[in-house]
Write a structure and sequence with these properties.
By secondary structure, the chain is mainly α. It contains 8 helices and no strands. It binds zinc ion.
């Protein structure tokens, strides 16, 4: 029974991951997500359903389109594998429950937002604001935080990020953060609550700083490099959902609090 649950969860994760790839590719291009069949982005050849199997098709086709031999981005198997892992992790941590389902949806949104921001430097409203609406409704069923904490955490963080956004704009005459980041922290707060959101923003800033410095040192680029912050927010939120409480306890202990 345990094995069947694991296999079912991973299978569902692979299917959702395959759908996320469609969202990641089409949403920024404003293409229809539901009704247009999968096709090769270069030669437009439709992909037959028997070759539209997550992970397996990539292996069978050796990472190339069957018609024009164009290389298929490794993003496809990566997103599918990561989504399957996330579904498994959610059920492993929360058991077979409504909250595991909500966590799986939350992690799926993080994966899509990170992938789109990496490629296009945008965080689509459909995902940030659509996700926020969904998780506002879910806050009434959330076993750990209520709607009040959810709204205060999300709106508080969004106001803080909006203030940073306008301050940077005024000082440097250029956008430091995107306004999409403001909407994304609203989404994160609505599901994570105050403590885990704090851990998420801490982890995002810390990892963003490390990667930013590494790029400046290794590629000798100047400080004005544009690095999307969404992938770091996604990474921070992913880690904070499962390990945020432990991280804050650890930091608290470092400051000498019990
Ligand atoms: Zn092709």
């Amino acid at each position: 029974m345990e094995e069947a649950l694991t296999a079912g969860t991973i299978g569902l994760g692979l299917i959702v991951g395959s759908f996320l790839n469609v969202v990641i590719h089409r949403l920024p291009l404003k293409q229809d997500i539901v009704f247009r069949p999968s096709h090769c982005p270069r030669c437009q050849t439709a992909i037959p359903f028997y070759l539209n199997v997550p992970l397996l098709s990539y292996l069978v086709l050796l990472g190339r389109c069957r018609s024009c031999r164009a290389p298929i981005s490794p993003r496809y198997p990566l997103v599918e594998g990561l989504t399957a892992f996330s579904f498994w992790l959610a059920v492993d941590v929360y058991g077979l429950s409504l909250h595991a389902g909500a966590a799986a949806v939350f992690l799926s949104l993080l994966i899509a937002l990170a992938a789109i921001d990496l490629q296009h430097m945008i965080l689509p409203d459909e995902l940030t604001l659509g996700g926020s609406a969904l998780f506002f409704i879910y806050s009434f069923f959330h076993p750990e935080i209520g709607p009040l904490q959810a709204v205060l955490s999300g709106a508080g963080a969004a106001l803080f990020f909006a203030a940073l956004f306008y301050a940077y704009l005024k000082l440097r005459q250029t956008e430091g953060l995107g306004f999409g980041d403001v909407k994304m922290v609203l989404l994160l707060g609505l599901f994570l609550g105050a403590r885990r959101l704090t851990a998420a923003i801490f982890l995002a800033s810390f990892s963003g700083l490390i990667v930013g410095l590494a790029i400046i040192v290794l590629k000798r680029k100047n400080l004005k490099l544009a690095l999307p912050f969404g992938p770091f927010l996604a990474l921070g939120a992913y880690a904070a959902l499962f390990w945020g409480d432990g991280l804050l306890d650890w930091i608290g202990a470092l400051w000498g609090r019990p």
